[in-house]
Task: inverse folding
C-alpha cells in the first residue's frame, strides 16, 4: 500500500510536470500535428526574438515571433528565400490591461501578456523538398496543452500565407 | 588621390556599419549612461524573451523585455530578489497598423513593430553593492542611436520602480 501510494504520487507529480513543461520544452511523446507532421520544437522558448505584434479583434493577443539560429541569421542578412532548416515560432498571450502598471503611471495605458490563449503556439518550418507543395514551408499549430490543431485547421495555413509569396510566405518582418 | 578616395569610402562604409550596429551590439566607444554608468550590453538583441507589452498613450509602442541568462533563470525559477549579474533589457518599437496583414485578414486588427522610437532601449542591472542606494538595481536609457539619456532622466527611474519593491522593483512578469 505504501508503495502504491508512492507510485500514485510520483505519477501525479510527473503528469503535473509534463502539463507545465510540454508546450515549453517538447517531449518524446509529443504528438505530431496533422498534414505537415511537425512536433513542438524542444527549447523554442529560448530562441531569439524576431518581432512582436498585437492582434486585436477576436484574437486580441500580444504575440512574439521567435526564430531558431538559421531563421534569425537569414532575417538579419535579409536573405530570401529562407534556407532549409529555418524555423519560426509564434507564441501568443491574452492582451490584458495591467492595473499595476497603470496605477504607477497614473494613466490607463499599459497592456501586458496575460495567460496563454487556447491556440498558444504555431511553427513554420522550412524544408523546400518535403514541403514543396506548400511553398517550401510546413505549418503547425498547438494549443496551450501542446495538443495539435486538427487537419482542417492546418489546411487553412498555406492559403493565408500565399499573398506574402514575395517575402517567402512569411508575414513577420524583423524588428530593427 | 585614388588612395584617398578609397580611404574615404572605407571610412564612410565603416561609419555606416557602426551607425547600424551600435545600438544592437554595443562597442568599445559606447558612452556610459549617467548616474549608474551603464553601457549598452553587447549582444543584448540575442537575449531570451521575458515578455511583451503594449504601452498606449503618449508612448504608443510595442515592447519586448529580454533578459541575460542570469535574469531569465531567476524568472523561470521564481527567484526573488534577482541575483547579482541579472540584466533586463527593454526594447521598443512604434506601434503601427499593418495594412498588409489587415488586407489578408480582411479586418483592421493587426498592429506590428514599426521603427525604433526615440528612446528605444533601457536596461536594469542588478548589483546589490554597487547600486545599494537604488534597491540594488542600476538603470540606463539610450536613444535609437545609442546615446544615453541625461542625468535628470536617469534620476526618475528608481522612484518609479519603488511601488514594485515586492517584486524586487521589476515591473515585467515572465510570459508563460
Result:
Amino acid at each position: 500500500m505504501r508503495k502504491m501510494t508512492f507510485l500514485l504520487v510520483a505519477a501525479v507529480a510527473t503528469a503535473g510536470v509534463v502539463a507545465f513543461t510540454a508546450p515549453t520544452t517538447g517531449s518524446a511523446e509529443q504528438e505530431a500535428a496533422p498534414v505537415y507532421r511537425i512536433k513542438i520544437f524542444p527549447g523554442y522558448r529560448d530562441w531569439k526574438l524576431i518581432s512582436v505584434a498585437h492582434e486585436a479583434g477576436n484574437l486580441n493577443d500580444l504575440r512574439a515571433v521567435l526564430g531558431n539560429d538559421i531563421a534569425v541569421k537569414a532575417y538579419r542578412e535579409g536573405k530570401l528565400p529562407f534556407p532549409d532548416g529555418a524555423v519560426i515560432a509564434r507564441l501568443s498571450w491574452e492582451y490584458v490591461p495591467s492595473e499595476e502598471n497603470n496605477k504607477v503611471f497614473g494613466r490607463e495605458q499599459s497592456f501586458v501578456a496575460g495567460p496563454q490563449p487556447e491556440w498558444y503556439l504555431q511553427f513554420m518550418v522550412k524544408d523546400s523538398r518535403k514541403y514543396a507543395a506548400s511553398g517550401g514551408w510546413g505549418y503547425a499549430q498547438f494549443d496551450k496543452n501542446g495538443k495539435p490543431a486538427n487537419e482542417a485547421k492546418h489546411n487553412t495555413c498555406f492559403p493565408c500565407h500565399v499573398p506574402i509569396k514575395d517575402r517567402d510566405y512569411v508575414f513577420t518582418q524583423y524588428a530593427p
In short: Chain B touches chain A at residues 45-46, 48-49, 51-59, 62-64, 66, 91, 93, 95, 98, 100-101, 103-104, 107-113, 115-116, 160, 163-164, 171-173, 175-176 (CB under 8 Å). Confidence is low (pLDDT under 50) at residues 1-22 of chain B. Chain B has one domain: 2-167.
